[in-house]
Design brief:
Radius of gyration: 23 Å
Number of strands: 18
Oligomer: single chain
Order of helices and strands: HEEEEEEEEEEEEEEEEEEHHHH
Length: about 325
Amino acid sequence: MASTRTLAVLLLGVTAAVACAGTEPPVPPPAGSIWATSDLYTYYFGIIEVWPELPGSAEPVLVDNDHAGIRISYNGGPGDFYVYVGPFSLIGGVLYDPNTAFLYGNASTAFDVGPGGLPAGFEFTGAEPNSTFYNLEQNQVPGMIFLGYEAPGTAPRLVEWNPGDPAKFANFDNAWLQVDLIDMRWAPDWASVDQMVSLNDPNVPADFSLFQYGSPPTPYMSTFWGGIDSDDRLYFSSGGHDHFNWGFTMPGLYEMDIQVSTFVVPQVGDFNCDDRVDFADINPFVDALTNPTQYAQDYPDCPLDVVGDVNESGAFGFDDINPFVDLLLAQP
């Protein structure tokens, strides 16, 4: 006789998939929540140089001299991020897939660094004395892109939490979105784009920094300080909209990989609590049916009354099998 686990897989005619990896939570999860991490998203920058094509477009949109934002509205799951170009109200405007538009730093972003270097406190930029530093300004400057992060709208599954990071103004309860720099790559021009190099390599002459002015300035990301690691992180308020300095030490073409994470209330059908309803939930679903005590030990943050009641009967049980299969097959 086939086991229940085998039967569940045969019903779907598939094998279970491997769960997506994600960033680690910086603090323990608030009660009733799980840590959710988006898919990896790549954004493209051209500093003086332009991208003649991108993976999603043979004629990409050049975003220059506009109010623009990297839109990271997130409510768990894989995410759905964009490049926004439009008014400050964030109402209307145009949304571009990140693979079809690039953020451009024109000649007005170039700043000549004198023999004394940048003022004290800006060492994290990596800008050398007697060099040119390229900065997409935090404050609006005519003729220059005005770029920020934004996460408009409501996200009902988000849970308030405290990252405990006063250095980045994130030391109180809020519906925070954690934005991590995963990698950043550079090529001096289009002719060498096939040999892009990671800014995590200390021998690469280019560096990137994300910061805000102040006394002293606040760096959120800096490839110059220790390469790319967990310190290259921004905590952003869901529903918020803010602008930053985007600093580059070299002209060229850049690819920026980011992921967004936060704590969310688990969703129905997510039996392994990776914040995705997919075939990787089959085995945990069978475990929950056949050995709920062991399931509770294996997935302590996955309350069955939340994730398991697929048919909305008020309890989890065998009557949830067919609705769970339907839910899986309905996923994109």
